[in-house]
């Protein structure tokens, strides 16, 4: 998984150069550079910057009529809202992103994971299970091991809260196994 092997120093240089060079470019190019900057901010935990860049990327993507850019900006905002405990706003961002039928499969997985956590945070546990199961199923089909581990973590936490301890134990155990396999120490620690 790219997020586990990133070089933040090099990424910062490239992101800054991309933003500088794109100012005179097309709205699509500017939006792509803003999405890159938002993703970089997400990996650093700078949620205010995520929102700043994702909002700019969405506006530019609308101007360029670039649907994939608009969805990516919504997902990044949803992720930042989720990280900040703003569950309702996260769910709204993810639901807006999933309205289009032509989402890429990997984006569909990200949205389902986000909705699973958002619904869990809102206490809508049955919906959280539904989205978690969908994310696990799609992750397995696509071979997205990291996403499957995260989706199983969500499914395990929700199952635990619902009192289904056997399902929670199974999902959390498999999540820890997958996270260990790919070297996602943060995911392993969250399950422990």
Q: Tell me the number of helical segments per DSSP (H or I, 4 or more residues long).
A: 10
- Strand count, sense and closure of the main sheet? none
Q: Give the % helix.
A: over 70%
Number of strands: 0
Give Rg in angstroms. Answer: 17 Å
Topology pattern, helix = H, strand = E: HHHHHHHHHH
**Low-pLDDT stretches:** none
Strand content: under 5%
Distance between the termini: 21 Å
Secondary-structure content class? mainly alpha
Mean pLDDT, as a whole number?
A: 88
Overall 3D geometry? globular
Structure explained in plain terms:
The chain is 82% helix and 0% strand. The protein is an all-alpha fold and 192 residues long. Helix 4 packs antiparallel against helix 5 (87-97), helix 5 packs antiparallel against helix 6 (105-121) and helix 9 packs antiparallel against helix 10 (185-191). The two termini are 21 Å apart. The model has no long low-confidence stretch (mean pLDDT 88).
What key phrases describe this protein's structure?
single chain; 192 residues; mainly alpha
Task: Give the arrangement of secondary structure elements.
Layout: H1 8-22, H2 27-44, H3 47-64, H4 67-83, H5 87-97, H6 105-121, H7 125-142, H8 145-162, H9 165-182, H10 185-191
Helix pairs in contact: 1-2, 2-3, 2-4, 3-4, 4-5, 4-6, 5-6, 6-7, 6-8, 7-8, 8-9, 9-10
What's the short version?
The protein is an all-alpha fold and 192 residues long. Helices cover 82% and strands 0% of the residues.
